[in-house]
Amino acid sequence: MTRLLLVEDNEMNRDMLVRRLQKKGFEIICAMDGAEGVEKAHQTEPDLILMDLSLPVMDGWEATRRLKASEHTKTIPVIALTAHAMSGDREKALEAGCDDHDTKPIDLARLLGKIDTLLSRSQPKLTSSTVLSPHSPAAMPPEDAVPITAASPTLLVVDDNEMNRDMLSRRLQRKGYKVIVADGGKQACQLITDQSFDLILLDVMMPDISGIEVLEWIRQQHTSADLPVIMVTAKDGSEDVASALELGANDYITKPIDFTVAEARIKAQLARLATSRRQQAAMAAQIKVAEEQAIKALGGRYKVVRVLGSGGFSQTFLAEDSQRPGRPLVVVKQLRPVQTDPRALEISRRLFNTEAEILEKLGKHDQIPQLLAYFEQNNEFYLVQEYIEGIMLSDELHSRQYTEIQVLAMLLDILGVLDFIHRYQVIHRDIKPQNIIRRKSDNKLVLIDFGAVKELQGEAINKTIAIGTRGYAPMEQYAGRPRLNSDLYAMGMVAIQALTGRYPHQLLEDPMTGGVRWKEEANVSSRLAKVLDKMIDPNCNTRYQTASEVMQDLWKIPPTALRR
């Protein structure tokens, strides 16, 4: 068996490389400083030495010079290992007597090639397919390993560097975790689709899909409370860390990984996950009771199919209407006031009735769900609305970017709806892709979720509460003073997202105007860009005032001026 001497003072790097090389069939001897390396080279006569250059007691350059000066060790090949590919490192290593040079983090395939080249004069060729017998000591689990059981948390480690991936997964397995590995973003997304995980360790820099893009995809499917993600980044990756945290990463660790720190952060996130799951279980029990109450309150007419959503003071159900031909699906919203004293209930009742009357009027529009029923039962309020079957605009935009022609059609479609609701002095307040559905029956865009619950609860408690979604809502809306043209700003941001393929929070702010810099991210004509810029003007007084104004300017753009 080929014997290698590894001289490395970093315990984690040493452990990682030893395991990888043992799996390839090498016998490994370790030394923790240059002086010990020289001593063990004389004692064990290895076939090749892997020499870290930044060592305590005696550095790698001096250790190599002494080895090459000794008659007993001068013929042993030495490969220098350095932490960074600094200019002159290779020349300095070769000058000290090293036979070759490699940089960290170690690419195992590259290192094996260099080892093979230096040993080829006297050793049989070693290939990357060489493996240890599963019964060899190096392949056996360490004595201090924590047993993995059915209750052990399942972690996904995503890293394109095989050595990093293997090292981290092995150490986590020793701590009792079930570990699945992915060598890139695409494989990670597929694994997350196919099975459940308790936590994900996600490398930022990967060749196929970056960790930031994978995180963005994960947060479309899972909340940060449901699936914790810890990003793994280089020490100087502060911008990546900021972007990741903004997109919903739970925490981060830096390379080289301090395993004690990594384990502490994993444990902290898993503890939060356990708490969240207990809360979800309690909420599920509450929802089940709410379902029964909803069925009872509605006289048994509506059979709940599934829960569409749940908040602190409301539940939304998809239900069958058992008293209509064909048992059509409907949406049932159950609203529970925050306060139940008589005065608060009277305010809630008045606002609920006003909201229902508005929805009754708005439902006359073909692209707004129709209100079918509303009533009060046991100090709780119920809305029954038309169910719209189709695909959310957010799902469309996640899979592709729109052309200018498609953006123009989308704008005219929704602006027509906004023009209608604004005539009733109603502000939607939450225009975003998740609240727009492309109806399956006719391909038209339908505007949903008019924020009845938010308005009802917010108005009953605090008349200046801000309602809206970050990135889509303008500043006056955050300040609690929305205007009709606040909806136009939000729709402009939806159009820009469709053109650029980027979420609003991913776009930079113009420091001169306070607006959004987006045109460099899109292939857009000047005439459409001018309209969109005016829609998202941060100043609500110079922004378009009405939806009809926007539509008039859009109709003036000839199709030939748009890029396809």
Write a concise synopsis of the structure shown.
By secondary structure, this protein is an alpha/beta fold.
Task: Please describe what this structure looks like.
- This protein is α/β, with parallel strands linked by helices and 564 residues long.
- The chain folds into 4 domains: 3-119, 3-Layer(aba) Sandwich (Rossmann fold); 141-257, 3-Layer(aba) Sandwich (Rossmann fold); 282-386, 2-Layer Sandwich (Phosphorylase Kinase, domain 1), CATH 3.30.200; 391-561, Transferase(Phosphotransferase) domain 1 (Transferase(Phosphotransferase), domain 1, Orthogonal Bundle), CATH 1.10.510.10.
- It has 18 helices and 20 strands.
- The chain has helices at 11-23, 34-44, 60-69, 89-96, 108-119, 162-174, 185-194, 211-221, 238-247, 259-297, 342-362, 393-399, 404-422, 452-461, 475-478, 486-500, 526-535, 547-555, and strands at residues 3-7, 27-31, 48-52, 78-82, 100-103, 154-158, 178-182, 199-203, 229-234, 251-255, 302-310, 314-321, 329-335, 371-377, 380-386, 390-392, 436-439, 445-447, 508-509, 516-517.
- It has a 5-stranded parallel β-sheet with strand order 2-1-3-4-5, with helices on both faces. A 5-stranded parallel β-sheet has the order 7-6-8-9-10, sandwiched between helices.
- A hairpin with a 5-residue loop joins strand 17 and strand 18 (445-447).
- Helix 1 (11-23) packs across helix 6 (162-174).
- The termini are far apart.
- The model is unreliable at 123-143 and 452-464 (pLDDT under 50).
